[in-house]
Automatic annotation (TrEMBL):
PANTHER family: ELECTRON TRANSPORT PROTIN SCO1/SENC FAMILY MEMBER, LINALOOL DEHYDRATASE_ISOMERASE DOMAIN-CONTAINING PROTEIN
Protein family (similarity comment): Belongs to the SCO1/2 family.
InterPro entries: SCO1/SenC, Thioredoxin-like_sf
A Pfam match: SCO1-SenC
Disulfide bonds: C78-C82
Keywords from the named record: Copper, Disulfide bond, Metal-binding
Entry superkingdom: Bacteria
Organismal lineage: Bacteria, Pseudomonadati, Pseudomonadota, Alphaproteobacteria, Rhodobacterales
Descriptive protein name: SCO family protein
Positions annotated to bind Cu cation: C78, C82, H165
Length: 201
C-alpha cells in the first residue's frame, strides 16, 4: 500500500468516526425533545374508556388498532355540524370506493342519554363505513378526555338541551396512533389528500 493510499484510508476512517460521533451526539444530546403539544398528540385516543358500538360490540383504546380510522364526536340531535360532517364522510367514502378502498369511521356520541345503540345505528346507517358508538356517561366523558375533544351541554327553553362539541375529524393509523385531522368543512381535495396519505401509511 502506497503512502498516498494509506493517507486516504486514514482520512476515510476518521471521517467515518466523526460522522458516527455526530450522529450519536444528535441522537443522545442535541435532538430536540418533544414539545408538550407533540406529547399530547401522541397520547390522543389513549385511555381506559370502555364504550359499545351500535351493534353491541365493546370498544376500547385497543380497538383503534388494526386499520386506519377516522373518529369524530357528535350527537343525533345535532342541527348542523354532524349532518354536514356525515355528508362529507359520504363523499370521501364514495371517492375511495372507486379505488376499492374504504375508511373506517367512528361516530362517538356526546349525548349518551338520548343516543342509544338503536338510535345511533339508525342515524349512521346511510353512511358507508361509519359505526356509531355510545356508552355510559362516565365512559363517554373518559373518551372525550382521551381524544382531547370538547363537549358542553347547553340548556334550551322548555327543558330541552343541545350540546356544543368538537368539529374536527381525527385520523389514526393502523397502529392506533394519531396521524392528523380534517377540519370542519375542509376543502374536499385537501381532505382526500390527507386521507389517502393515511391509508398509504
Amino acid at each position: 500500500m502506497t503512502r498516498q493510499t494509506l493517507r486516504l484510508v486514514r482520512v476515510l476512517a476518521w471521517t467515518a468516526v466523526v460522522v458516527a460521533g455526530a450522529a450519536l451526539l444528535w441522537a443522545t444530546v442535541l435532538r430536540p425533545a418533544p414539545t408538550d403539544h407533540q406529547v399530547a398528540m401522541q397520547q390522543l385516543g389513549k385511555g381506559d374508556y370502555t364504550l359499545v358500538t351500535a351493534d353491541g360490540q365493546p370498544f376500547t383504546q385497543a380497538d383503534l388498532q388494526g386499520q386506519p380510522t377516522a373518529v369524530f364526536f357528535g350527537f343525533t340531535h345535532c342541527p348542523d355540524v354532524c349532518p354536514t360532517t356525515l355528508g362529507e364522510v359520504t363523499a370521501w367514502q364514495d371517492e375511495l370506493a372507486r379505488d376499492g378502498q374504504t375508511l373506517r369511521t367512528l361516530f362517538i356520541t356526546v349525548d349518551p342519554e338520548r343516543d342509544t345503540r338503536e338510535v345511533l345505528g339508525e342515524y349512521v346507517s346511510w353512511v358507508p363505513g361509519v359505526t356509531g358508538i355510545t356508552g355510559e356517561r362516565a365512559e363517554i366523558d373518559k373518551a372525550v378526555a382521551a381524544f382531547r375533544a370538547f363537549a358542553q351541554r347547553v340548556p334550551l327553553e322548555g327543558g330541552d338541551y343541545t350540546v356544543n362539541h368538537s368539529t374536527q375529524v381525527l385520523l389514526f393509523d393502523a397502529g392506533g396512533d394519531f396521524f392528523g385531522l380534517v377540519s370542519y368543512q375542509e376543502d374536499h381535495d385537501r381532505a382526500m389528500g390527507t386521507i389517502r396519505r393515511l391509508l398509504a401509511s
